Amino acid sequence: MRADNWLTRAMLALAFIAALSAPAAARDCPQPAPVCAARDAVFAVSAFDPVASAVRIGPKRLVTTRHGIADEAEIVLFLADGSRVAARAVPNDYPGDLLLLESDALPEGPLLERAEAAPGTALYTVGADLGRGAIRAYDPGPLQLLPAEGHPLARLHHGAYSQPGNSGGALVDAEGRLIGIVASGGEGRFEAIPVAEIAKLEARSGPEHKDASAAIGAALRVCTLLLEDLQQAGRRTLEEQEAKAVATSCTRSGNRQLYDLAAQTLGRTGRREESIALFEQALAEDPNAINSRLGLVVTYNLARRYEDALPQLRWLFDKAGDDLQVLRLAIQAGVWGGDEAFARQAFERLRVLNPQMAPAAERFLNDPPPRP
């Protein structure tokens, strides 16, 4: 829950200020020099999320993810010297997960050159690390998939490590150029909003969008808090009205990450058809969303619909076939869904990537238990 935001913010401020007592450690950076320099354009911010990140894009303007701010009126921006200044959200009716912030107290500093992502490029997340009390440049990862063509809200999919608190931070290349805004992900599968979307956001930002922006922010808040309450309660089943409230509020948020989280919650609590519908909605927005497609496969498995899972797994095998979870699910669905050739193809790749897992997988292939 977020009722103790004021305390969390105070602890965050203390963590950043304490880091100043060891400036050499806080500024240590093993990444390429341009990547390390990009940290000067990234700031920690506290609002609906107790800690998130924001990237400077103008003398007094920054961009961040909307889900970190929601409809919060009080926004705190942390400067490099540990001081805190106020920032304000610029209303928008942009349908994606971006929001502009403005602060009259933002000191002078660099702006990052913008560039498009290219296959084979090493990418780096630059964002707020609460544990270190500093802006950190993390180890690199590859570009996995470019945004799906014909889908305006499709994202960059990459393997550059990030963690909570990095949302709204910068995804940069080895030259320190801004490629995207860090959005979500985990388990080696991360997402960023392409840098070209910032111009679209700016075109749809301004006081005339106050009502639309407030409605989206409120939906983000309601959806997030509802999902947190259900998780903390450890609910295993949901009533019809509860399931409808989850699906409605999270859909109104327009946030694909929340579609996934809501779908996971519905799937775990036995609302399989509602879960599948939300995952399909997420994939209609971004067909390259690996985590959404994996979530759909897991829900199909929970529903014992292995044949329906197979087309999704073939796509994943082609696009993310080095992911061990994809391979395990492909073996299972292939055996129980009637495509043994696909199961064995997945097994052969698994055996190369992780020989320790191969014996158990081979036993399942050769002597599978009855289909549930």
List the helices and strands and how they pair.
Layout: H1 5-19, H2 23-27, H3 33-37, E1 42-46, E2 52-56, E3 61-64, E4 75-78, E5 84-90, E6 99-102, E7 122-129, E8 134-137, E9 141-145, E10 156-158, E11 170-173, E12 178-186, E13 189-194, H4 197-203, H5 210-233, H6 240-253, H7 256-268, H8 272-285, H9 290-302, H10 306-320, H11 324-336, H12 340-353, H13 358-366
Antiparallel strand pairs: 1-2, 1-4, 2-3, 3-6, 4-5, 5-6, 7-8, 7-9, 7-11, 9-10, 10-13, 11-12, 12-13
Helix pairs in contact: 5-6, 5-7, 6-7, 7-8, 7-9, 8-9, 9-10, 10-11, 11-12, 12-13
Explain what this protein looks like in three dimensions:
- The chain has 372 residues and is of the alpha+beta class.
- The chain has 13 helices and 13 strands.
- Residues 1-6 have low confidence and may be disordered.
- The longest helix is centred in the middle third of the chain and has 24 residues, at 210-233.
- It has helices at 5-19, 23-27, 33-37, 197-203, 210-233, 240-253, 256-268, 272-285, 290-302, 306-320, 324-336, 340-353, 358-366; strands at 42-46, 52-56, 61-64, 75-78, 84-90, 99-102, 122-129, 134-137, 141-145, 156-158, 170-173, 178-186, 189-194.
- It starts with a helix and ends in a 6-residue tail after the last helix.
- The protein folds into two domains: 5-200, Thrombin, subunit H (Beta Barrel), CATH 2.40.10.120; 208-366, Alpha Horseshoe (Serine Threonine Protein Phosphatase 5, Tetratricopeptide repeat).
- The strands form two sheets. The protein has a six-stranded antiparallel beta barrel with strand order 1-2-3-6-5-4. A six-stranded antiparallel beta barrel has the order 7-9-10-13-12-11.
